[in-house]
Write a structure and sequence with these properties.
alpha+beta, eight-stranded mixed beta sheet, 4 helices, 34% strand, globular
Length: 173
């Protein structure tokens, strides 16, 4: 069900455009990924990150105008009894706090619900990432629960994650 970059559609919001990840985006996305404001919430990228094609994951570059400002991806659980999709994203430090994250999440969720017919979406920010959690709640995500010692931090300690989900009927459009 995840689509290859050639088949993934462009997704447009009022201020952002999500385009399928292309090789020419990789260097700028690695720069953004290494910004301290982004890196504290994401693992350090491998040298080949982001891979343009990865099985079962659809990756997007987030553009504001003609500028690369972030990254978004989605994946899915194919078992029909548990079918759902999950998403992740980050934006450059200079674009944070302007509502672009909410727009990206809203556009991507609408695509997953309307075009792929997912009835449930999940996301799993670190519990300490209050701005991201607030963003997801604005779109309709609800807290499911804390996953204790869920993700390994850069310093070797463990961080709790917050599992959040969104039912299709709860999307705030």
């Amino acid at each position: 069900m995840a689509t290859t970059p050639e088949l993934a559609p462009e997704l447009r919001g009022p201020r952002v455009l999500l385009v399928p990840l292309r090789p020419e985006h990789r260097a700028r996305l690695r720069e953004i990924h290494r910004e301290p404001e982004v890196r504290k919430w994401w693992q350090m990228p491998d040298d080949d990150w982001p891979e343009v094609e990865e099985r079962d994951t659809t990756k997007y570059t987030v553009l504001e105008g003609d500028q690369v400002v972030g990254f978004a991806q989605w994946y899915f659980e194919p078992d029909p009894e548990y079918r759902h999709a999950g998403l992740d994203l980050f934006l450059s430090a200079q674009t944070q706090g302007r509502g672009l994250g909410t727009e990206v999440v809203r556009v991507l969720c609408a695509h997953l619900i309307d075009d792929h017919r997912f009835h449930r979406l999940v996301i799993d920010p670190k519990v300490a990432n209050a701005p991201a959690i607030a963003c997801y709640r604005k779109v309709g995500f609800k807290d499911v629960g804390v996953m204790r010692e869920y993700e390994l931090n850069h310093d070797g300690s463990w961080a709790d994650g917050l599992l959040m989900d969104l039912l299709a009927r709860e999307l705030v459009r």
